[in-house]
């Protein structure tokens, strides 16, 4: 999921002037949709969107914060994940 967040934060089409930058809500909804494709249920409050730089070509930081139940060899435990668009 980290690679997906990095790609989403890159905002390639807006960066080259094809479309305006996505709104924070659009980005948040995209993160939730991507997480769902991995079987991860996220709420809007679990997604952080920060933008900086010029309005026409901002830089985005996107992060998610969630816990997931993992089962290995008959044992089950909860892990905390915090993927982000940062390298």
Question: Explain this structure to me?
Answer:
The chain has 87 residues and is of the alpha+beta class. It has one domain. 31% of the residues lie in helices and 30% in strands. It contains 3 helices and 4 strands. The strands form 2 sheets. Strands 1-2 form a two-stranded antiparallel ribbon. Strand 1 (47-52) and strand 2 form a beta hairpin. Helix 1 (2-10) packs antiparallel against helix 3 (24-37). The relative contact order is 0.22. The mean pLDDT is 87.
Write out key terms for the chains shown.
single chain, two-stranded antiparallel ribbon, alpha+beta, 3 helices, 87 residues
Secondary structure blueprint with pairings:
Layout: H1 2-10, H2 12-15, H3 24-37, E1 47-52, E2 59-64, E3 66-72, E4 75-81
Antiparallel strand pairs: 1-2, 3-4
Helix pairs in contact: 1-3
The residue fraction in helices comes out at 25-40%
Q: What is the H/E string? A: HHHEEEE
The count of helical stretches stands at: 3
Q: What fraction of the residues are assigned to beta strands by DSSP?
A: 25-35%
Q: Name the overall outline.
A: elongated
**How many angstroms separate the termini?**
13 Å
> What is the topology, as strand order, of the major beta sheet?
1-2
Q: Are there runs of 5+ residues with pLDDT below 50, and where?
A: none
Domain count: the total is 1
Reported for the largest beta sheet, the result is: 2 strands, antiparallel
- Tell me, rounded to a whole number, the average pLDDT: 87
Oligomer: single chain
Radius of gyration: 15 Å
Structural class: alpha+beta
Strands, count? 4
